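Everyone, study these two lines:
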Amino acid sequence: MRIMAGSSRGVPLKTVPDLDTRPILDRIKKSLFSILESSTLILDARVADFYAGAGTQGIEALSRGAEHCVFVERRPEAVALLNENLLKTRLNDKADVRCSTVSAVLHSLPPTQKFDLILYDPPFSFSREEASRADAEKEMAIAGTFLYPGHARLVLRFEKKAALPAPAGIDMVRHWTDGPHAFAFYQQQAAAK
């Protein structure tokens, strides 16, 4: 696992060595970030990396020119590796690392907080998750309220075999698969006129 492009290109990253973490493969990360860059969702962006693990996706965004990233991970051992990775890449001054649950952080953010990009990579797949599907979609809907209207995106990583989540208040605008991996890109619903 390494940084694919940008200011920290080539820097190797530590990952969490357990079965509760699904580190993104370099090949998949490269494809995802090509899509994000071509959609102008990275440069100068305010990013959130939810269910961050060791932070490989959020750190990739910072390396490629994102302005700031809020990382949320509940496991202290993963947060320790995340902080090591940020120091190694010299991107720690652009990061806000929170050892907490995503739900708790979402409920603590001020309503004025907005993101250009939310990387949403839960450890459950929507086909065998611990929490109920309804609870997971509700959390995604809350996360979606923190997107800037219009161009901003919430990008969900999940298993291709799972049914596409349909959280309230955000619409899926792109769906991309690669082998067993799937990504859904959501934006805030347009306000009714």
